[in-house]
Description:
This protein has no helices and 8 strands. By secondary structure, the chain is mainly beta. Strands 2-8-7-4-5 form a 5-stranded mixed β-sheet, with no helix packed on it.
Amino acid sequence: VSVEGVEPGQTVKGNLQLAVTATVPGGGQVDRIELFVDGRRNRTAKPGERLAFDASKLAAGRHELRVVAIEAGPIQSQGRRIIPVNVENHTGK
């Protein structure tokens, strides 16, 4: 599972657009991509769709983004990428 649009340890704010690519060994197909924030499912997308994520809805500080690719078929194997981020939602006055 590869994720573009955010790097581990990055400070983020506002809207993020995550582009996810995943491959299944043996030529299987990815059924869906799920985004978990701090252990809670936040979004689901089909392969090739971007995951939109609004970091401004989180408290400032450290958070964990977990992107999970789930294989199609009766045995739904999973691959994942865990990305720790720092959220900064300060607005200038």
